[in-house]
Amino acid sequence: MLAARRGRRHGDTTLLRSLLAAAVVIALAAPLAGAQESRLPDIGSSAGELITPAQEEAYGAMTLAQLRHFDYVLEDPLIDSWLDTLGHRLAGASDDTKRHYTFFMLRDRQINAFATLGGYVGMNSGLVLAADREDEVASVLAHEISHVTQKHVLRSVERQKQDQLPTLLGILGAIVIAQQAHGNSADDAAQAAMAAAVGLSAQRQINYTRSNEAEADRVGMQLLARSHFDPRGMADFFSKLQSRMRTNEASAFGDEAPDYLRSHPMTVSRVTEARERAERLRAQPAYTGTFASDNPMLPGGLRVEAGTGTGPTGLFDYARERLRVLSALTPATAVQEYASIRRARELTDAEQYGLAVAHMLSGQPRAALPLLSGVVARKPGELWPQLALGEVEAATGNGAAADARFENLVRKTPGSRAVVLTYAKVLGERSSPAAGKRAQAILRPLMGSLADDPVFQRTYARASEIAGDPVRAGEAHAEAAYLSGRPEQALVQLNTLKKRPDLDYYARTRIDARIAEITPTVLELRRQGIRDEDLKR
């Protein structure tokens, strides 16, 4: 019953926040109607004039916060670090190296990826699971990065102004269904209608023209080569998608094509062009040196240095298996998946790592211990199995061995997000002041770079709680709420924290400044009649 009530509350809040998301999309597009023709900007115009960079960043951050609020985002320090490294190696090879990017992974096992305003690029777990090597995943990221650098996203916002009314009506239809539906099926009906309406809004934002797609393919493939990835990865993944599309069309479920194919349709000519272009790039002496830029805004014949990226991260196999576990319905379901693989052949080291993670998350760390010990013995230099083994050692009562392992890793890589957050989580599970203070000490140096990471904020909040630092814990909890699409909850927490009699001058100043930053957002939500349902109760 409690779970059902929570589900209903989440469904109501989801609908309200989806309406807000659509309203912001429409609000961004509406002022453009009077100032712009219904055509794309010409060569002399700048798509960057449609909205300001600050508005781009605000929209992208809002989108990510809402996805987190819906629990669509797969938040894991190791996966986040891998995806961030991969994305920035590619982005660093673009002609616009000053642009900021935020890469994030979604739980969904559908094959999909998208870019939105502000350089926010999302990828579904299913896309990684469908790939055979990291070059294929990199090709999709390079394609989406190119949509950003070539300003296709901004131009799609201009086109979206024509779709304001049907999008808004779709969202309102979801609200009506939510109000009229009764019984246990109410949430399902409302969620389905909401998903369709919000999907319409998102889809129309990222449906690019054929010329946009061709340009993103071309520029993206150059990013692959400049970053020392195999440019054939794009053609190979396109072929894989095309084959899947044909299989779906030939089956009784032909309408269940991957979402990525709806916004990025595959044709024989597109796959062929990608393959031919990849071979030309590989044949160039510049494959490991300089490239002839095809940016029309740069002088013809200008050659640019290859990107600073060093190609594949070497973590793809582990990342794919970790995603297999974290995107499964339950850890036990993941264990069953590995059992199915094992019936056909022996598990690879990466698959044994994945199975061990599944056992660990299922509450069976002793079943994970021999698997991880074997992988670490065979590959002692691999970080991810080392971290998992440390977690399992701590969970099986061998805290001394776990601490020795983690402390050694922290000494070697004190700035590693994955190492620090994993160790801090293990320390937080001990609930001792000493463990809390040690967790605070290793987390504090990353506070600047990970301030916008809700996992970091939640981990720091836990460390501060057990260390006996309730003020810092309260600030971190509020920040985590804000980053997860709950600004009103964050404001309430900060105002409550401000009443503490033991606040010093610096803490009060920090809290007052954050309240001043969050208040306008909450006031705008209230003006629109949108309130946090959990707070109302």
Structural description of this entry:
With 537 residues, the chain is mostly helical. It has three domains: 2-41 and 48-253 and 261-294, no CATH class; 328-399, Tetratricopeptide repeat domain (Serine Threonine Protein Phosphatase 5, Tetratricopeptide repeat); 413-537. Helix content is 66%, strand content 4%. The chain is built from 25 helices and five strands. The strands form two sheets. It has a three-stranded mixed beta sheet with strand order 1-3-2, with helices on both faces. A two-stranded antiparallel sheet has the order 4-5. A hairpin with a 3-residue loop joins strand 2 and strand 3 (120-124). Helix 1 packs parallel to helix 8 (186-206). The chain is globular and about 70 Å long. The model is unreliable at 1-46, 161-187, 250-255 and 288-308 (pLDDT under 50).
Task: Give a nutshell description of this structure.
The protein is mainly α and 537 residues long. Helices cover 66% and strands 4% of the residues. The protein has a three-stranded mixed beta sheet with strand order 1-3-2, with helices on both faces. It has a two-stranded antiparallel sheet with strand order 4-5.
Give the count of structural domains. Answer: 3
Coarse morphology: globular
**Mean pLDDT rating:** 80
H/E element order: HHHEEEHHHHHHHHHEEHHHHHHHHHHHHH
Spans of 5+ residues with little confidence (pLDDT < 50)?
1-46, 161-187, 250-255, 288-308
Please give the radius of gyration in angstroms. 24 Å
Question: Ends: how far apart?
Answer: 17 Å
Biggest pleated sheet: 3 strands, mixed
% residues in beta strands: under 5%
Question: Strand sequence of the main sheet, in spatial order?
Answer: 1-3-2
What structural class do you assign from the helix and strand content? mainly alpha
Helix proportion of residues, in percent? 55-70%
Query: How many E-type strands?
Result: 5
Distinct helical segment count: 25
